[in-house]
Amino acid sequence: MNDAHVESLKYTLKLPERVVFENPPPIDGETSEFAWALGNNLLTVTMKDHYANEDSARDMVEPFLRKWELDAGLRFGGPSLDFRLPRRCLSIGLRRRGTMSSRFQ
Question: Is 0.70 surpassed by the pTM of this model?
Answer without folding.
Answer: yes
